[in-house]
């Protein structure tokens, strides 16, 4: 298992629609493990394959972050929201590809998600609270959508400019 570099916005790969996974190869299983290690190391609660430069429909997450909580890692291939509640929730979101930036985003409070697990089994479950927000945020990544796309254009431009600057600084010190 190894930690993979996380792409920072703006990057064309973060704006690209990811391809469905038809066959869960050893390579993709390894990728899922690497993504979990990368996510815990960051630290974060979710990560989508495009964020490590792989344009496949795969997300990982673990929102069990209460103190003393046992880790509850998920790796979901081809995840899909099959039902969303009319009730909305507002959460302050962040993203490992947009460091140190947070903003409130409104999304359905509860969702039912269908996915394929790493052993190829079909799963379906209902998620609420932080889990629901996180899953929807990660599935958005597979569509090339970032949480800042829900903000107004001025705010988005400001954040994008700040990220461009951050990337230039990181390139200089690398
Ligand atoms: Zn994100």
TrEMBL record:
<comment type="function">
    <text>Removes the formyl group from the N-terminal Met of newly synthesized proteins. Requires at least a dipeptide for an efficient rate of reaction. N-terminal L-methionine is a prerequisite for activity but the enzyme has broad specificity at other positions.</text>
</comment>
<dbReference type="InterPro" id="IPR023635">
    <property type="entry name" value="Peptide_deformylase"/>
</dbReference>
<feature type="active site">
    <location>
        <position position="138"/>
    </location>
</feature>
<keyword id="KW-0648">Protein biosynthesis</keyword>
<dbReference type="GO" id="GO:0042586">
    <property type="term" value="F:peptide deformylase activity"/>
</dbReference>
<keyword id="KW-0408">Iron</keyword>
<dbReference type="GO" id="GO:0006412">
    <property type="term" value="P:translation"/>
</dbReference>
<dbReference type="InterPro" id="IPR036821">
    <property type="entry name" value="Peptide_deformylase_sf"/>
</dbReference>
<dbReference type="GO" id="GO:0046872">
    <property type="term" value="F:metal ion binding"/>
</dbReference>
<dbReference type="Pfam" id="PF01327">
    <property type="entry name" value="Pep_deformylase"/>
</dbReference>
<feature type="binding site">
    <location>
        <position position="141"/>
    </location>
    <ligand>
        <name>Fe cation</name>
    </ligand>
</feature>
<protein>
    <recommendedName>
        <fullName>Peptide deformylase</fullName>
        <ecNumber>3.5.1.88</ecNumber>
    </recommendedName>
</protein>
<feature type="binding site">
    <location>
        <position position="137"/>
    </location>
    <ligand>
        <name>Fe cation</name>
    </ligand>
</feature>
<comment type="similarity">
    <text>Belongs to the polypeptide deformylase family.</text>
</comment>
<feature type="binding site">
    <location>
        <position position="95"/>
    </location>
    <ligand>
        <name>Fe cation</name>
    </ligand>
</feature>
<keyword id="KW-0479">Metal-binding</keyword>
<keyword id="KW-0378">Hydrolase</keyword>
